[in-house]
Specification:
about 300 residues; alpha/beta; D-Maltodextrin-Binding Protein, domain 2; Double Stranded RNA Binding Domain; 3 domains; five-stranded mixed β-sheet; about 35% helix
C-alpha cells in the first residue's frame, strides 16, 4: 500500500469504541505489511444526547449514522461499529462484510444488592437504556423498578456508584475490552436474558463496490462470527426489529450446524415469547428468518403491532 495514502477507519470516541478500533488496527497491521492506518474519531448524535432514551430520539442508528455518512462521502474507508448498534437495514451503498472474532455475548448484572437478578430485593431500581433488557428483567421480576440509564460503560458505572440505581446490566464484552474484569459482576445466562443481536461482535462496514477495502478486510474476518451475526440480523429483518422492539437473539455454531434462540417481548414485561431453531450453517440466514417467522406466528398480529 502507498505510504502516502493511509487506510482511514472511522470510529466513535468512547473508550470502548476506541478499544475496538484498536483491535481492528492491530488485526490489519498483523496481516498487511507497510499498511498505514489513520483512526478518524467521529462524534455521533447518540454520544451527544445523553438525557433521553434512545427510542425517543431516533434509535440505535444514532450511534452509527454520522460515521456511515463519512463513509459514503469518502472521508473514511471503513467504519468500525459494535454490531449490536447497527440498524437492521444498512444505508444504501454500504455493506458489512467483516466481523472480528466475537467476545462473550452475554449480559452481566452489577449490583451491591444481590449476586443475581433473582437475589435483588423487591423494589430495587435497575438502570438500563435497553428496552430488550427492560422487558426481560420485568418479565422475570415485575417487582423491580427499571429506569433509563444512558451513557458509556464508565458513565453508567459511575451512576451506579453514585446511587442513582441499585443495579445495572452491561455486556461482558465491553468490560473485557476495557480491561474492567476486576469489577464484581454476575454473568446472566442466555436462558434467562437473551443478548441483543450481534452483541459481543465488532462489525466493519465499507462501501459496496470498494473491492480494495474488502480485500484488506477479508483476512481479519471471523467466519463463525459472521455466520452467527448474519443469522441473528436475519431474524431482526423478519421481525422488522428496531430499538422500539424488545428483541433478543443468540446464534451458536456447532460443527456444521447453527443453533439460534430468539425472543420478543412487551416493553413492560407482561408477555415474552421465545423460539429456537437449528439449521445447517451454510443456511444461516434462512435459519434466522425461520425463527423470525416462528416468533411472528406465535405472537400474532396484535402483539406485533403493539411492539412496533
Amino acid at each position: 500500500m502507498n505510504q502516502t495514502s493511509p487506510f482511514r477507519i472511522g470510529t466513535r470516541g468512547s473508550p470502548l469504541a476506541l478499544a475496538q478500533a484498536r483491535l481492528v488496527r492491530n488485526g490489519l497491521e498483523a496481516v498487511h505489511e507497510n499498511i498505514v492506518i489513520e483512526e478518524v474519531v467521529i462524534k455521533t448524535t447518540g454520544d451527544k444526547i445523553l438525557d433521553k432514551p434512545l427510542a425517543d430520539i431516533g434509535g440505535k442508528g444514532l450511534f452509527t449514522k454520522e460515521i456511515d455518512a463519512a463513509l459514503l462521502d469518502g472521508r473514511i474507508d471503513c467504519a468500525v461499529h459494535s454490531a449490536k448498534d447497527v440498524p437492521t437495514w444498512l444505508p444504501d451503498g454500504l455493506i458489512m462484510p467483516c466481523f472480528l472474532p466475537r467476545e462473550d455475548p452475554r449480559d452481566v448484572l452489577i449490583s451491591a444488592q444481590g449476586s443475581s437478578l433473582d437475589d435483588l430485593p423487591p423494589g430495587s431500581v435497575v438502570g438500563t437504556a435497553s428496552l430488550r433488557r427492560q422487558a426481560q428483567i420485568l418479565f422475570r421480576r415485575k417487582d423491580l423498578n427499571v429506569i433509563p440509564f444512558r451513557g458509556n460503560v464508565g458513565t453508567r458505572l459511575q451512576k451506579l456508584s453514585d446511587g442513582q440505581a441499585d443495579a445495572t446490566l452491561l455486556a461482558i464484552a465491553g468490560l473485557k475490552r476495557l480491561g474492567k474484569t476486576d469489577i464484581k459482576f454476575h454473568v446472566i445466562e442466555p436462558e434467562k436474558i437473551l443478548p441483543a443481536a450481534g452483541q459481543g461482535a465488532v462489525g466493519l462496514m465499507c462501501r459496496a463496490g470498494d473491492d480494495r477495502t474488502q480485500e484488506l478486510l477479508m483476512p481479519i474476518n471471523d467466519v463463525d462470527t459472521s455466520v452467527c451475526v448474519l443469522a441473528e440480523r436475519a431474524m431482526l429483518d423478519i421481525l422488522q426489529g428496531t430499538c422500539h422492539t424488545p428483541i433478543g437473539s443468540l446464534a451458536i455454531i456447532n460443527d456444521d450446524n447453527i443453533y439460534i434462540r430468539g425472543c420478543i417481548a412487551m416493553p413492560d414485561g407482561f408477555e415474552l415469547i421465545t423460539a429456537e431453531h437449528t439449521g445447517h450453517a451454510k443456511s444461516a440466514v434462512e435459519t434466522g428468518r425461520e425463527i423470525g417467522r416462528n416468533l411472528m406466528s406465535q405472537a400474532g398480529a396484535n402483539f406485533m403491532a403493539a411492539i412496533r
